[in-house]
Amino acid sequence: MRTLTSANSYLISLASLLILVLAFTAFPSCASSTARPENVTIGLLAKDFSFNMSTITVPAGANVTVNFENQDPSIGHNFAVYDSASMKKTIFKGEIIVGPKKITYTFVAPQAPGTYHFQCDPHAKNMFGQFLVK
Description:
By secondary structure, the protein is of the alpha+beta class. It has one helix at 6-26, and strands spanning 39-47, 50-51, 55-58, 63-70, 76-77, 80-82, 90-93, 97-98, 101-108, 114-119, 128-133.
């Protein structure tokens, strides 16, 4: 049985390092991810006791900015996101504003992909939609 010389050990270490570098280059998903969360901006309008959209889609863990405009004079509306229509868990609950008025809400979307629920809390029976996290 032969013992490795220090030169052979050096070459084996260098070859192992080269293989790792090539693997992370060819298969970047093998490397640890330090990607920043995406930033998403949504324009949401409340008018005539309805929202201008019934579905909002965002990436998982995104930094979400909602530019909310309430155009209903003397009526209070808000934007809130819950785990489901049963509202067992609050993801985000924005301040109620009396229109006409604008406000900017910011929050972080759930990390878990799925279908969540958004609504106007004072008018949840007719102002609601799906908040999709992909």
